[in-house]
Specification:
ten-stranded mixed β-sheet
Length: 229
């Protein structure tokens, strides 16, 4: 087998290119769906300019879209008081929200420290897609960090929110918190995969070797005509 490959450098290069290019796929982790929300209507002046960006674990968004109302996922066991709706209906998975960014701090009343996301819930209801972020280190009435119901534009299914802006409610904090705001939620495009340098180099080698590959000489027999007899 090794002699076969050594006598055919083109196959060696092609094998190298294929193995190297596999690194582009193997080395690229699965990406979840990322969304960015921005307040456009609120009763609280200090919420103007608020932004939140979160990423749902891979596959969760599509699974929820295809599910019946009152289907939810939660990342971890709820250790507080008796679970309330919709927590009691949720299926436990390793992780729901994998990344969270916000420019607004929400905590216990009078405490403006950045909350620590420890529990996230995502699902579908009759009203739309439901998202809740919780800090379970706080007393029960203060655990809510952010809660939102996302609705598709009129006449469109919720799946439209995967590719275009959708309207959503936005409630912050527990014990009353800051309620009644509205926001626009926009999907954040995934970055395009860029081939690893090793794959690009290997593919270049393939091209060079095939260009330099010696051509076999072909002998074309002379054409005999009546005049040459």
């Amino acid at each position: 087998m090794s002699q076969f490959l050594f006598t055919r450098p083109g196959l060696v290069a092609l094998s190298t290119a294929v193995i190297s290019s596999m690194g582009v796929l193997i080395g690229t982790p699965a990406n979840g769906a990322t969304f960015k929300g921005m307040i456009y209507e609120t009763y609280f002046p200090h919420l103007e300019g608020f932004e939140i960006e979160y990423t749902l674990a891979d596959g969760i968004f599509d699974t929820i879209l295809a599910s019946a109302p009152n289907t939810f996922f939660i990342d971890g066991d709820y250790l507080g008081p008796a679970p309330s709706l919709p927590m009691s209906l949720a299926t436990v998975v390793p992780e729901v929200v994998t990344d969270l960014k916000t420019n607004f701090k929400v905590g216990i009343e009078g405490d403006r420290t950045q909350p620590v996301l420890q529990l996230s819930l995502f699902g579908i209801t009759e009203e739309g897609l439901f998202l809740q972020l919780l800090d379970v280190n706080q007393p029960p009435i203060y655990q809510n960090i952010f809660k939102s119901t996302i609705q598709a534009p009129e006449g469109l299914p919720l799946s439209a929110c995967k590719t275009q802006a959708c309207d959503a409610s936005a409630d912050f904090g527990g014990k009353g918190g800051f309620y009644g705001s509205r926001m626009i939620v926009t999907p954040v495009p995934e970055p395009e995969s860029v081939p690893e340098p090793s794959a690009a180099v290997a593919l270049s080698v393939v091209g060079v070797l095939f260009l330099k590959r010696p051509r076999k000489a072909v002998t074309i027999p002379a054409v005999v005509t009546a005049d040459s007899k």
